[in-house]
Design goal:
Layout (H helix, E strand, L loop, with lengths): L5 E5 L3 E5 L2 H20 L6 H4 L3 E4 L4 E9 L2 E8 L2 H5 L21
Antiparallel strand pairs: 1-2, 1-3, 4-5
């Protein structure tokens, strides 16, 4: 089974991981609906609460790689994932990845 790739967060529940994007979105929407009901009794929105409700994608920075030590023995280490995987998510490069270079090309 693949690991969960999505999360939702609200201050009362904390982080919940989900296997599907729709589940994460629905959980965050549900939290917002519940906050709307609770805050309606308090003269409006509770911005310190509702401003932290979110959902998103979990992006791995490293994965486990098996190392054959010989003689039937193995070990494991974490290996950085390809910069292309994290670059599409707007994440800063890790220490072992180079930052994108400005090529002078204009977007448009």
């Amino acid at each position: 089974m693949t690991p969960p790739r999505w999360y939702s967060y609200d201050p009362s529940e904390g982080v919940t991981v989900h296997h599907r994007e729709a589940e994460a979105r629905e959980a965050a929407e549900y939290s917002l609906r519940m906050a709307r009901e609770v805050c309606a009794d308090m003269d409006g929105w509770c911005s310190e609460y509702t401003g932290t409700i979110e959902w998103g994608e979990l992006v791995p920075r490293a994965t486990t790689r098996e190392i054959d030590l010989g003689g039937g023995r193995v070990d494991y280490r974490l290996e950085d994932v390809s910069p292309a995987v994290t670059a599409g998510h707007g994440l800063p490069p890790t220490e072992t990845q180079e930052a994108p270079r400005d090529t002078g090309a204009k977007e448009g």
